Automatic annotation (TrEMBL):
The lineage of its organism: Bacteria, Bacillati, Actinomycetota, Actinomycetes, Pseudonocardiales. Residues 5-98 form the BLUF domain. It comes from the Bacteria. InterPro entries: Acylphosphatase-like_dom_sf, BLUF_domain. Pfam families: BLUF (PF04940). This is BLUF domain-containing protein.
Amino acid sequence: MAEQVHRLIYRSRSEIPRENREVVLAEIFDVARSKNKRSGVTGALLISDNWFVQTLEGDEATVSGLFETISRDDRHTDVSVIESTTVDARVFARWSMARISVAGRSDIPLHDVDGRIRPAAPDRPGREQQDLLTRMRNTIGADSV
């Protein structure tokens, strides 16, 4: 039987000033990867100039609690849930938190849930993963496909 998990996808408008963006985003990823690894949460964060789109996967209570914390963060506004559902399996099972560019390329390496360093996005993501990344991009109009 497949592992059922809760998936939550949200988008929000970035309030991080352009001149501080690199440092602030690095801090966000460091904290997210560490906490997510401990709590069994996986996912991906798509970043554009003005928007965040994030997918979180894991135990429903854990994901919901994490989203409540994230939604109160003043580094973004206009937080809206795109999807909140139970799915048969994780799409980002190896990623404690991956940073994905709007073009779909990996931006930085990350530690996966097993503690090994892996690229943030495989060269050839699986069909389900590619479909979800496309949906994420489409929520902010970043996908031209």
